[in-house]
TrEMBL record:
InterPro entries noted in UniProt: MFS_dom (IPR020846), MFS_sugar_transport-like (IPR005828), MFS_trans_sf (IPR036259)
Composition-biased stretches (Basic and acidic residues): 723-733
Descriptive protein name: Major facilitator superfamily (MFS) profile domain-containing protein
Major facilitator superfamily (MFS) profile domain segment(s): 193-657
Length: 779
């Protein structure tokens, strides 16, 4: 038996199609070592054990479970298998439920802290670097048409050369940047040389103008290096840098799905390092590009990794901690991302050459290759893929560093599953992949039989629906009126938030008198925004903070239209207020959407809303391009969009302290009973109820075990009931709250009951119902 179990790691690899040795030798060895197991499990296949009674009204208590566990160890299964009674630490259909294991190995212990703070969070910094470093590559200096015939006249000053060859600008003071006079400059140069530059009568009013014929001359005083200078991206080509931003974001839409599929199918760890490699290599090669088309191609490959390079380590961190720490990890991830933006402003300030900036924002992160020896695969993903040996190794390290140990029942479940695989490896004919496919099918069938009773108990106790009850599709988001309304409103808010946030971030360098300081301040205001938002989400809920921040941010952006062109500081302050508010709403929209979409269609709903929001990110660079001629026009457009989204969001229901919808039917009913003005902050204050009454209601709601004097207490309560009724004020008398007061007390009681009886995860994610793992492809 021991030798058979030592063979199991090989058998698992063989079952996945890897050529580790001869399967004939393995079958022979297994039959020789454990013939009793083989014969007993043949009987197990022919006579499956009866499942537990699925109609039980209540789940067994801990004493009963412990006794059953001891019985299963002292009286083994008659067919050589572990008893089908479920292990007491599991709560889902999977026998290896990571959420149930976390309390045993630590939900946020030393292991998680070291991995999150030293690996996962720093891994988010490259996303901000490569998403916004282009803003400092594409600076446009003052320029004018090049006239090579006049360059040989050394006695001409630049100002005089522009005066005789460049027409005045039509919309501003100064000279045109894209036109020149159409005249014979060779004759003009000869005349200047003959008369010793004392030429008068030029330019002639009769001269016509033509676009620049020989390129441009650039004033390198303010901008010494950029792709605009090297690739001549001015005049008719001035929109090309904006096209580069659009291509970057188009790559992001494709890449977030591509790397999401890789992460879901082959694991978080290989997906992260592949994504990091593509980003860094493409980032370095960007500096080698000889022309704009090559540069644009590299930007597309960089865009493939944004925001996937941010999401993958974030998901690894989320999957390592318990549900109560998800909101904390989410906010910390946002803060690290913002720290990357602040760091980028400093790097760009000191590195003014765009080629060197490409190297400075890519080469240092090659050190992240050392994470290969420290970043483990997500144990939640490993368990969802039944890679038990690898998951056990990670869990052992996690438990050891946290000063804990895996529960004994985990090893019992692991042993039972390994026995099943060993049996099929030994006696099932055909190729090994077919044998292990049969083993997996048998395992799933046996697990399904074992878990049916427990799922029935959970549905009755917790009033939840199984994922398998209804195979909901994408169209179910629009079949019923309430779900259709919420889907459209969520998508509109997602589109408005993502478009405005990215647009304001792109527009930062254009505000103020110093592009580096403006970008730095635009990132700095996000830090207090995230911290305030974290507090408000738990006290005021999701709906009111979301809508209020969108309306405030949009109004601040619209107010820039009343500012004078010289009011640079005032315009910058309004911009920063808008960025502060939109950053808060952008943080809220994702968890709010995850809580509003029912569990059955959460992945499809978030994927749909997220991809529509991604279209806005592709459009917003062209909106910002309008600011070349009118600085506040993009701010007005983004402000109107966010105000509309904020007002429409008021028709979404609140999710704080509410039981979240599981099925499409739950989603259709969710929020119908809520009123427009409902806000958890008012409920939390108890509608002017006193703290004593709050404590009393909580005591009434808390289930208590009646003591031995319960009967006497009940008798005294009955005896004094009449006196209490006489002493109680009648309606309209002093102390009676009246009809409105009763309604307020009922509302407060309902709120307290929801708080006590309903415990929801802090952040909801799209989850694969078959495996329980987070789906990155539905981000």
């Amino acid at each position: 038996m021991c030798i058979g179990f030592l063979w199991l790691p090989w058998s698992d690899s063989l079952g996945r199609g890897k050529p580790y040795g001869s399967h004939l030798l393995a079958r022979s060895l297994s039959c020789i070592v454990c013939p009793r197991l083989v014969m007993s499990q043949r009987a197990a296949v022919q006579e499956p054990d009866s499942t537990p009674d699925s109609t039980s009204d209540s789940a067994p208590d801990s004493t009963e479970v412990s006794s059953r566990s001891r019985e299963s160890r002292s009286h083994p299964h008659p067919h050589g298998l572990v008893s089908p009674q479920r292990a007491p630490w599991t709560t889902n259909a999977k026998p290896t439920d990571f959420d149930a294991l976390l309390p045993h190995v630590g939900e946020y212990g030393r292991y998680q802290k070291l991995l999150i703070w030293l690996v996962c969070l720093p891994a988010c910094i490259p996303c901000g670097f490569h998403a916004f470093n282009q803003l400092f590559m594409a600076g446009t200096p003052e320029h004018w048409c090049r006239v090579p015939e006049l360059e040989g006249v050394s006695s001409l000053s630049i100002e005089y050369l522009k005066r005789i060859s460049i027409p005045p600008a039509a919309r501003s003071s100064g000279y045109s940047q894209c036109e020149m006079y159409d005249t014979d400059y060779n004759k003009l140069a000869e005349k200047i040389l003959q008369e010793d530059a004392n030429v008068t009568g030029f330019p002639d009013a009769s001269w016509s103008t033509v676009p620049c014929q020989h390129g441009w001359v650039y004033n390198l005083t303010q901008v010494s290096s950029s792709i605009v200078i090297d690739f001549d991206l001015v005049c008719s080509r001035e929109i090309f840098p904006t096209v580069g931003l659009c291509v970057l974001n188009v790559g992001g839409i494709i890449g977030v799905y591509l790397f999401g599929v890789i992460s879901d199918r082959w694991g978080r760890r290989p997906s992260f390092f592949l994504c990091l490699s593509v980003e860094l290599v493409a980032g370095v090669v960007t500096g080698w590009c000889p022309n704009f088309n090559a540069w644009l191609c590299c930007r597309f490959f960089v865009g493939l990794t944004i925001p996937a390079i941010y999401q993958i380590p974030f998901i690894i961190a989320i999957e390592l901690v318990g549900p109560n720490y998800r909101a904390f990890v989410t906010v910390m991830t946002c803060l690290y991302y913002t720290f990357g933006l602040l760091l980028l402003a400093g790097v760009a300030y000191f590195v003014r050459n765009w080629v060197h900036l490409c190297y400075a924002t890519a080469l240092p992160f090659f050190l992240y290759g050392g994470y290969w020896w420290f970043l483990p695969e997500s144990p939640r993903w490993l368990l969802s893929r039944d890679r038990l040996e690898e998951a056990t190794r990670v869990l052992k390290v996690l438990a050891r560093i946290n000063g804990k140990s895996l529960p004994h029942e985990y090893y019992e479940e692991l042993k039972r599953i390994l026995k099943i695989y060993l049996y099929f490896f030994a006696i099932v004919g055909g190729s090994l992949p077919c044998a292990f496919a049969a083993a997996s099918g048998f395992q799933e069938k046996l697990i399904a039989q074992q878990m049916e009773a427990q799922r029935a108990r959970e549905r009755k106790i917790h009033h939840i629906h199984s994922y398998e009850q209804h195979n909901a599709g994408f169209l179910d988001l629009f079949r019923t009126p309430n779900m259709r309304k919420k889907t459209l409103l969520i998508t509109l808010n997602w589109f408005a938030n993502e478009t405005a946030y990215v647009g304001l971030s792109y527009y930062g360098p254009a505000m103020g008198s110093d592009e580096y300081m403006s970008f730095f301040l635009a990132g700095l205001v996000e830090i207090p925004s995230y911290l305030c938002c974290w507090f408000l989400m738990e006290e005021w809920g999701r709906r009111w903070p979301l809508c209020a921040s969108m309306i405030v941010g949009g109004t601040a952006a619209i107010f820039t239209v009343v500012m004078d062109q010289d009011a640079v500081v005032e315009t910058l302050v309004l911009y920063l207020i808008a960025k502060f508010a939109i950053a808060a709403s952008f943080l809220i929209i994702y968890p709010f959407a995850g809580e509003l979409y029912p569990t059955e269609v959460r992945g499809k709903g978030i994927g749909f809303s997220g991809y529509i929001g991604g279209l806005g990110v592709c459009i917003i660079p062209f909106v910002n391009f309008l600011g070349r001629h009118n600085l506040v026009l993009p701010l007005i457009i983004m402000g109107i969009l966010t105000v509309i989204g904020g007002i429409c969001g008021l028709w979404l229901p609140e999710t704080l302290h509410e039981k979240l919808p599981q099925t499409i039917e739950d989603g259709e009913a969710f929020g119908k009973e809520q009123r427009f003005g409902d806000c958890p902050c008012f409920e939390h204050r108890g509608w002017n109820e006193s703290a004593t009454e709050s404590s009393t209601l909580l005591k009434e709601l808390r289930p208590e075990d009646p003591g031995p004097n319960a009967a006497n207490e009940e008798g005294r309560s009955s005896a004094g009931e009449g006196r209490a009724a006489d002493a109680h004020p009648r309606p309209g008398e002093a102390g009676e709250p009246g009809e409105d007061g009763v309604r307020r007390q009922s509302s407060y009681r309902a709120m307290l009951q929801r708080r006590v009886m309903v415990r929801q995860p802090t952040v909801e994610f799209p989850v694969d119902p078959a495996t329980g793992a987070i789906r990155l492809s539905h981000w």
